[in-house]
Amino acid sequence: MDMEKIKRLWAGPWVPAHQGKMPYLWMLSLVFLLWKYVYVRPGWTEVALLAGSVCLFLPMYLASFWPHRQRTVLYVLLTCLLGVLWAPHNWGASTFFIFAAGMCAGIVPTWRAYLMVAVVLALVVLTAASMASPNLSFLLPALTVSIPVGVAGIMDATLQRSRGQLLRKQEEVEHMATIAERERISRDLHDLLGHTLSLITLKAELAGKLLGRDEQACRAEIKDIETSARTALSEVRCAVTGYRQTGFAHELASARASLAAACVELSAEVEAFALPAAAENVMSLALREAVTNIVRHAGATRCEVRLALEQGMIVFRIADNGAALASSAAIRQGNGLTGMNERVTALGGRLALRVERGLALELTLPMGAGA
């Protein structure tokens, strides 16, 4: 062992921080080894051997608080060996057995810890029986104190391990909640910004074409760009804080404006019925994402939107007459549709994509979704 390692060991900590200062106070129990010498004057050899035994015991005692498991069993047996060797000469050696019982708390699983306490008690009895004249001052403390110390230590260690597992589970739950919240914000920002930026781009292109030809119309388009940008900023703030204030009617009006700017005619057939808040949010975001895709990619001239209540199920359908992809599987790779599918599935609904005259998207949600 190099000097650096020795310095680190000496600097500590010698026991885990959660144990506090009690392990150091328990070391005061070693004074029982000195009780004999109040009546009997010891020889220098005995003093040297006792000091050496204590110096051998203390590192094992402190190390038993760290999770070595297999080594802990060795520490318990070696501590009992010290008790066995000193019992015929010093009845205070019962303290070694008491410490050994307490050290069993570091053994896992719990049944092995209790088994080790039983081994310690058996060694106490055998040691007392092997003495020429059994000393009750050794036997009684070793038995009566070792049992509660061992049992209490094991129960406390089990409780600490349970608390540790609970804390780790709580940390895991918090971590998963953080990931879920990040995914929610990512989906919402994609839906919000994708739609609004597409609208702003179209209006900016239109304003550029009108510039120098129709100043009044150009001013109106620029005003719409400003309004759209402010709306987008407000919606982004709402999405980040987890609140969504706009409903399906507002989103439908916004979709009509976006499609009109792209020269796409919107035909809407919306039944009048009360939508659950969670379902309305999903429908609104689905409409936003679908309109964004139509404006960007479809090259459509007509879009049909239908919202109806059929046999207790909310059915939302949006279809266009643009150039659809060869298969709906290729579309599912996009972030917007992936997020949409996750939201629909979370509410117990289903999302379907079909290639018809163009692309048709259909969402089906139970009426009680999110209620």
List the helices and strands and how they pair.
Layout: H1 3-11, H2 22-26, H3 44-63, H4 70-86, H5 94-103, H6 110-130, H7 136-210, H8 215-241, H9 248-261, E1 265-270, H10 277-298, E2 302-310, E3 313-320, H11 328-331, H12 335-346, E4 350-355, E5 359-366
Parallel strand pairs: 1-2
Antiparallel strand pairs: 2-3, 3-5, 4-5
Helix pairs in contact: 3-4, 4-5, 4-6, 5-6, 5-7, 6-7, 7-8, 7-10, 7-12, 9-10, 10-12
Give an account of the 3D structure.
With 371 residues, this protein is of the alpha+beta class. 64% of the residues lie in helices and 10% in strands. It has helices at residues 3-11, 22-26, 44-63, 70-86, 94-103, 110-130, 136-210, 215-241, 248-261, 277-298, 328-331, 335-346, and strands at residues 265-270, 302-310, 313-320, 350-355, 359-366. Strands 1-2-3-5-4 form a 5-stranded mixed sheet. Helix 10 (277-298) links the parallel strand 1 and strand 2 (302-310). The relative contact order is 0.06. Mean pLDDT is 79; it is low at 326-330.
Identify the notable features of this structure and list them briefly:
371 residues, 5-stranded mixed beta sheet, alpha+beta, 5 strands
